[in-house]
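Here is an idea for our session: we take a single protein and study its fold together. Which protein we use is up to you, so please pick one and set it down. Once you have written the record down, we can walk along the chain together:
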Amino acid sequence: MRCDLPALIIIDMQKAMANPHAGHRNNPEAGECIERLLAAWRAADAPVVHVRHMSRTPGSLFWPGQAGAQFQEAFAPLPREHVVEKNVPDAFVHSGLERWLHVRGIERVVMAGVSTNNSVEGSARSAGNLGFDTTVVADACFAFACTDYAGQARSADEVHAMALANLAADYATISDSASVLHALFDAT
């Protein structure tokens, strides 16, 4: 594994996220973008981390043992790739992820997955706060429509854009998959 390259962190690409009950989402091409990123990282022998949410709420689509908690087939980890399980949105909380990255001398991370305003944003905030050079790949993430605190319905595109704006302010560089892949190939 080439630890001079950034780690690709794929967040919560589990079967539950493909369930229609998850809600209306944006960015339908995000899965294909993540697949291209994963293929490139594997070809470069760069570090890959798969994050899996394991809910503590009985009946959740992410409850351990439920089909929804399993990785989608396209994102199933290879034996050499690291898997992190989390119970809260932030992949760094009680998971050992920070230590795993530090032990390998990895200082840069690239994040993709779901949902932009929840687990991706929470994890990217921590990564930035912990001193990692963090990139979030906008077209390799997606969000779901929701109602804001004031009761206003927000589209998935609005939720996604606001989360990316929050991250760009202080925590991460926001990029697209073509630019991230170009940078990776320039480094290899």
